[in-house]
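Might you be able to check the backbone structure tokens below? Thank you kindly.
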Amino acid sequence: MLLITNEPKPGGAPSDTRYTGRVWHSDHSFTLVPALGSLLRAVEIPEVGGETMFTNMYLAYETLSDGMKKLIDGLHGIHSTARKIDDADRAADMKRRNPPVAQPLVRVHPETGRKALYVGEKVKQIAGMTAEESRPLLQYLCSHATRHEYVYRHQWKKDDLVMWDNRCTMHIALADFDETQLRHMERTTVLGTPSGHVYDGPLH
């Protein structure tokens, strides 16, 4: 169980999870066994804002041109853990335990057989390319995947429980609320199937 909260720690130190999820992503994509699904419960919510948006990655892939599908077929994006941690030792330990992982830009859902785009704003580079070369393509794919017609925006109510399939969705927690108000969520994830490989190539 991961507590995603902006409530300070005992003693007043900021919470390690106060910025969790504030970019478009799929849970645990930076591991070799990405999450199959996630469950998120709203324990305490601000008066206004703090919503979560989800996007359909089936549609994101299916509406690409044939030329773009051909271009990205076989390419791998480099995923890394990007959660901000103020403790330098903990941050270094997390990087050691979770080295960069190369995931395919297109995944085939193991149950439906449908192809889904597999990118996110944490992906900064494509394997075999420099970050500069990768940036325009990754920016386009993320922008395309989050077009409003593919997106559902959930307005939380206390004790809401939302479940989703990480293999064909991407999500983001919006930071559009008064940070002096408490936003406290509980999340757990369901282990998926192996995907990707550890990336030991150069990062530019």
In short: The chain has one domain: 2-198.
